Automatic annotation (TrEMBL):
Pfam families: HTH_20 (PF12840). Keywords: DNA-binding, Transcription, Transcription regulation. Residues 89-114 are annotated as: Disordered. The keyword Transcription applies. SUPFAM superfamilies: Winged helix' DNA-binding domain. Residues 1-92 form the HTH arsR-type domain. This is HTH arsR-type domain-containing protein. The lineage of its organism: Bacteria, Bacillati, Actinomycetota, Actinomycetes, Micromonosporales. The keyword Transcription applies.
Length: 114
């Protein structure tokens, strides 16, 4: 089991369902029911995904009367960005030198569109 912060963040981001949940939360708060709507899975399965995101610090919940809306917290993403920047320079070259780095996509596309 991942114990350090970066490992928890990367593990949370590794799953396409969790990335889709984060994409939805980037547009604003949502309840678990609202987050579960586009998926063909049970509420407990969605709740398990949310727990992984919460342990990574990417999702926060607050009490609002009877509701417990979820919201995105981007702070942990900066930990991952900082680590990734060690390997990719602004010019797109990898650590191995010119031409060894990954090709930047012209346009990023999400795995799941909500």
């Amino acid at each position: 089991m991942a114990t350090d912060e970066l490992s928890r963040i990367m593990a949370a981001l590794a799953d396409p369902t969790r990335r889709a949940i984060l994409s939805r939360l980037a547009r604003g708060e949502a309840t678990v029911t609202e987050l579960a709507a586009p998926f063909a899975m049970t509420m407990p399965a969605v709740s398990r995904h949310l727990r992984v995101l919460e342990r990574a610090g990417l999702v926060r919940r607050r009490q609002d009367a009877q509701r417990r809306p979820c919201r995105l917290d981007t702070t942990p993403l900066w930990t991952a960005v900082s680590w990734l920047r060690e390997f990719v320079t602004e010019s797109g070259e990898g650590a191995g030198g010119p031409g060894d780095g990954p090709v930047r996509p012209a346009e990023a596309t999400p795995d799941v569109i909500l």
